[in-house]
Design goal:
Layout (H helix, E strand, L loop, with lengths): L2 H10 L2 H6 L2 H14 L10 H14 L1 H33 L1 H15 L7 H8 L3 H25 L3 H9 L4 H39 L4 H11 L2 H29 L12
Length: about 270
Amino acid sequence: MTRAGAVARHLIATPAARTLGPFVPIVAAWAMVVELGVFPRAFFPGPLEVVRAFGDLVYKGILPAYLQDSVTRLAVGAAAGIALGVPFGLLVGLHAASYRFFWPIVIFFQAIGDIAWLPILLIWFGFTLTTMTFVIVYTVIFPVIFNTALGVRTIAPDMVRAAQSLGAGSHRILWEVLVPGALPNIITGLRNGLGYGWRALIAAEIIVGTSGIGFMMFDARRAGSVVEMILGMIVLGILWYVVDAGIVAPLERATIERWGLTKREA
C-alpha cells in the first residue's frame, strides 16, 4: 500500500470521518435537488444558504445566545428530572408495596403528555423559566423511573442471595449488586429521558419561549425564513449528538462497559 493510500485509510478510520461520512450522501442529494430546481429556493434553500445563515446569526450573536439559553434550560430540567427519577425508580423497583401503591399513579401521569400541561402552567407561572423547567422535568422523569424500576426488578434473585450468603448487608447489596445490575437500564432511561426532554424543550420554546432554538425557528416562520428553520433543525441534531457522545457515552464507558455489563462496539 502506498503512503498516500495509508494516509487516506487512516483519515477514513478517524472518529470524525466515521461520524460525518454517513451525512455526505444526504448533503449531496440535498444540494442536487436544490440545483435541479425541484422546489423554489425560497421554500427549499440549499446547504450553502444554510451555512451563510449560520455565519450571519453567529456574527450577530443571536445563535450563540439562543443556544446558551436552550442548553441551560435542558441542563437544569434534566438534572432535576434525573435527581428525582432515579431514587424514585429504585424505591418502586425494590419494594413490592411501593410498586403496588405508586405504579398506577406513575402510569396515570405518564399518560398525560407534557405539552398538555402548558395551558395550565401558563396560568400558574406565565411565560417564565419555571414553565419550561416543569415541562422538561415532567418529560425526563418518567423514562428514568420506568427504566430504573425495570432494571432493579429484573436482577436475578440468586445474585442477592449470593451476596447475603457472603455476609453483605443491605447497603452493600444496594450499591454493589442492585445498582450495578440495574445500571444498563438506568443509562437507557437517562438517554431516553434526555432525548424526550430536549424535544419537550423545543416545543415549549416554540409555544411560550422568548429565546432559544425553538423560539428562533418559530420566529423564522413569522418572517418566512425557511433557511433559519432548517438551520435550527440542524443545530438541534448536532447539539443532541454532542450531548449523547459527550455525556451519555462517556458515562457508559466509565460504568457499564468498565464493569463488563455490556460489550464495547467495534
